[in-house]
Amino acid sequence: MANLKDIKRKIGSVTNTQKTTRAMKLVSTAKLRRAEELAKRSRLYAQKMNQVIAEIAGRIECSKVGGLDNRCFEKIENPKIVDIVFITADKGLCGGFNIQTIKAVSKLLAQYKEKNVKVRLRGVGKKGIEYFKYNEVVLFDEVRDLSSKPDKVRSDEFIASSVEDYMDGKIDGLHIVYNGYLNIITQQLHVNKVLPVNADDFDCSKHQQSTLEVEAQDEAKMLDTLVKKYIQYNMYYSLIDSVAAEHSARMQAMDAASKNAKDMVKSLNVKYNKARQASITTELIEIISGVESMK
Amino acid sequence: MDKFKLEILTPNGLIFNDEVVSVVLPGEEGEFGVLAHHASLTTLLEAGVVDVEREDKSVESILINWGVAQVDEEKVIVLVEGAVAIRGESEGAIAKALEDAKELIKDIADSNPAIASVSAKIESAAQKLF
């Protein structure tokens, strides 16, 4: 019976798939451990850096002191061009990890389109780049192989051009969109508006006593350097956070795939046994009826 | 003497988090010391040695390559890019820390004349430990 052979083949193919998914899960688990460690260690620094910058921004906002006007801390009412940097994985097979980021970017694009704001899309990671290219969305800039292997030098170079353009007044905002690591089973989408620096959360009344004193002769230069470092670090941190999230997402997806394959093999086995039984029964009936007819 | 909280963070994590009596930081405009209840200020730091004095008068030296310090009345937060603490149980460990420290400042691209003095400072900090 041909049916029997088909089922057998199918069982073989599903078992092979299962082997692959299980191997991929193991690889992701190992990689995740390393990436998670790196992200965890850097998280504190990123948080403090954000805190310091937010405080400076808040104090500038509250005191409205002259001489400290830096474009990065100003509120820009009518932005004309903004940069959106998105980070996706270079590889697929990680569940909804990439699509979540892509959706968030598309939403942001739509929002800006409504307001007639031009967007320069800068992509990191093959999956996102391919998606937008397929959908005929023009990418201003694209980088591959950076999201899978975060490298401080490359990430600094990449983001520096946006920061410089911002400082030169060529763009009026900068967003970083990526899917970050929350814990081993959840990823959290981040849509960070890094420029202009957000000072909204700062409570002025709390800090009325202490005024900001910037101990540098060239205050503007100091703020520029600081903001640059802040954004460079933010970008790098986004990358390592994204890698950790990617591995956790892949681990989960591959775990689910292995489980599904296992279930499938089980049900196919049942089907195979039933088909085998049926063919034996038919054969027996054929023999018996043959014998009967000869009597 | 009054104490205050000092936190030194690098991208690889928290390397110092303790109560201290004083800290000397290599600011861009020159070295400056901070005691408890210092007026708030924010400044950039350049390559140099951070000297931390604890309550028991022990001094610890930490080499940094770039950083930003935020000082307020209660605490000091120092964010640095790279740091090596010059300390160790044995002579070997101190020598290793010294190697690391020299490696760290070698990475600083611009030929800063301050580097030479920093190297000398690291040596002298290490000497104190022996």
Summarize, please:
Chain A has 295 residues and is α/β, with parallel strands linked by helices.
Account of the protein in words:
The complex is a heterodimer of chains A (295) and B (130). Chain A is an alpha/beta fold. Chain A is 61% helix and 13% strand. Chain A folds into 2 domains: 2-20 and 254-294, ATP synthase, gamma subunit, helix hairpin domain (Helix Hairpins, Orthogonal Bundle), CATH 1.10.287.80; 44-253, Pyruvate Kinase, Chain: A, domain 1 (3-Layer(aba) Sandwich). In chain A, helix 2 packs across helix 3 and helix 4 packs across helix 5. The mean pLDDT of chain A is 86. Chain B has 130 residues and is an alpha+beta fold. Chain B has a single domain (1-130), classed as F0F1 ATP synthase delta/epsilon subunit, N-terminal (ATP Synthase, domain 1, Sandwich), CATH 2.60.15. Helices cover 25% and strands 45% of the residues of chain B. Chain B has 2 helices and 10 strands; from the N terminus they run E-E-E-E-E-E-E-E-E-E-H-H. Chain B has helices at residues 91-106, 114-129; strands at 4-10, 13-20, 22-27, 30-35, 41-45, 48-53, 59-64, 67-71, 75-80, 83-86. In chain B, a hairpin with a 5-residue loop joins strand 6 and strand 7. In chain B, helix 1 (91-106) packs antiparallel against helix 2 (114-129). At the A-B interface, helix 1 and helix 5 of A face strand 1 and strand 5 of B.
CATH topology of chain B: ATP Synthase, domain 1
The chain-level mean pLDDT of chain B equals 79
The shape of chain A, in one word, is elongated
Oligomer: heterodimer
CATH topology of the largest domain in chain A: Pyruvate Kinase, Chain: A, domain 1
State the order of secondary-structure elements of chain A, H for helix, E for strand: HEHEHEHEEH
- Looking across the biggest beta sheet of chain A, what order are the strands in? 3-2-1-4-5
The count of domains of chain B is: 1
Say how many strands of chain A there are.
5
Strand content of chain B: over 45%
The residue ranges of chain A in which pLDDT falls below 50 over 5 or more consecutive positions are: none
Query: What is the structural class of chain B?
Result: alpha+beta
Q: How many angstroms separate the termini of chain A?
A: 29 Å
State the order of secondary-structure elements of chain B, H for helix, E for strand: EEEEEEEEEEHH
Tell me which CATH architecture of the largest domain in chain A applies here.
Answer: 3-Layer(aba) Sandwich
CATH architecture of chain B: Sandwich
